[in-house]
C-alpha cells in the first residue's frame, strides 16, 4: 500500500495553498472562531471562488456541478482546508455528506434542484438531527411529521444545530412519521426550506461563540411531499450513510498538524536561559508524542480513502478515524498550552499572547470534536459492533 501523493496532486496542494494565501483574511479565526455575521460573507466568497475553479465539489460528477475529480485530490483539498481552519465554513457540510446523501437517495428532480446550487457555493444547510431528549440515542427523536397526502405537517424541536442562524437556507430534518414500531423504524428525512412559516431559530450562547449552535422550533410547518428524501418511515439507513460520510469528511489530522507546526515554530524562536525552547527535552518529547499520533491518524484517514476507492464501506474505520482525529486535535492543543505555559493562557486581545492566542482558541474550539457528530463513546460502540463483531449493547 503506497499512500504517496502524485506530482500532480502535490501541485494541486500548492495551488490550494496559493489560493488560500491570496484569500487570507485577518479577521478569519477558523470555523468555530467568529460569530456568524462575521464569517458568513467571507466563507461564501471562498466557496464561490473555489467553485469557479471547479474545486468546491471536486469529486462530484460533472452532471451535478462537480469536476469528476479523484478521491485523493479530494483528500488533498480536505487537508488544506482543515489546516487553514476550514474557510468553506458551514458549506463543508454540503460537500461532505448532505450533497452525497441527496446524490445517493434523492429523486432526479431533487438532485437537479439541490445539488447545482451547492456546487456553485450559494447555499447553507443545517443539520436538524439532535433533540433535547435525543442526542446519542438519536432514534428516540420525537419531532413529528404528519402525513397529509401531498404534504407533511411538522411539529417539534431540534437542538445544537450548527449554522442554523447563519442563516441556513435549508435543513436536513429527521422527523418521526410512524410511532407504531421499533424506534429506528418510522423516521423520515425531510429537506426543509428554512423560510417556511412556523420555523423559528434561536441562537445559543456557547463556548464556541454566539450562534455557532442553535435551537430550531417547528410549529405546524408545511413541508411538501416532494421534499421527502428516500422512503417514508425508512430514514435510518440514510442517517447512518450520512453520518459515516460526515465522520470521514473532516481532515482533523491536518488541523492537528497545523497546531503542532505552530508550536514547533514558537519553540524554535523562543529563547529561555540563552537556549531555544525547542532544545528542552520535555518540550521535544511532548511534541514528538503528538506528532506520532498525528501520523497514525493520517494513516487511518488514507486507509478509509483507499477503501472507498475500492468500493468498500468503511463504517468501523470512519468511527476509528473520528476517535483518533478528535482526540488528537484536543491533545495537540493541550500540548501547545503546556509548552507555552502561562503565556498560553493569554487571550488574543492581549498584545503578548503568543501566536495571537491561536493555541488557546484551538483548545477551546476542539473540545466540541469529541461530542459533535456522535460522542467518542458512541464511536467506540460502533467500533465494538461493526469492527469487533460484538452484539449491540442493550
Ligand atoms: C459544537 C457542536 C455542534 C453540533 N452540531 C449539531 C448539528 O449541526 N446538528 C445536530 O443535529 N446535532 C449537533 N450536535 C449535537 C451532537 O450530535 C450531540 O451533542 C451528540 O450526539 C451527543 O448528544 P448529547 O449532547 O445529547 O449527549 P448525550 O447523548 O446525552 O450523552 C451524554 C453522555 O453519555 C454518553 N453516552 C450516551 N449514550 C451512550 C451509550 N450508548 N454508550 C456509551 N456512552 C453513552 C455520551 O458519550 C456522553 O458522554 C452538535 C454538538 C456540538 C457540541
How would you summarize this macromolecular structure in one to three sentences?
This protein is α+β, with helices and mostly antiparallel strands. The protein is about 45% helix and about 15% strand. It is built from 11 helices and 10 strands.
Helix-strand blueprint:
Layout: H1 7-22, H2 36-52, H3 71-83, H4 92-105, H5 108-119, E1 125-128, E2 144-147, E3 151-159, E4 170-176, E5 187-193, E6 199-206, E7 209-224, E8 228-229, H6 236-248, H7 252-269, E9 271-272, E10 275-276, H8 281-309, H9 315-340, H10 358-366, H11 376-387
Could you explain how this protein is built, in words?
- The protein is an alpha+beta fold.
- The chain is built from 11 helices and 10 strands.
- The protein has helices at 7-22, 36-52, 71-83, 92-105, 108-119, 236-248, 252-269, 281-309, 315-340, 358-366, 376-387; strands at 125-128, 144-147, 151-159, 170-176, 187-193, 199-206, 209-224, 228-229, 271-272, 275-276.
- Strands 1-4-5-8 form a 4-stranded mixed beta sheet, with helices on one face. Strands 2-3-7-6 form a 4-stranded antiparallel beta sheet, with no helix packed on it.
- A hairpin with a 2-residue loop joins strand 6 (199-206) and strand 7 (209-224).
- Helix 1 runs parallel beside helix 3 (71-83), helix 4 (92-105) packs antiparallel against helix 6 and helix 6 (236-248) crosses helix 9.
- It binds flavin-adenine dinucleotide.
- Flavin-adenine dinucleotide (FAD) binds at residues 127, 129-130, 135-136, 160-162, 208, 213, 368, 371-372, 374-375, 377-378, 381.
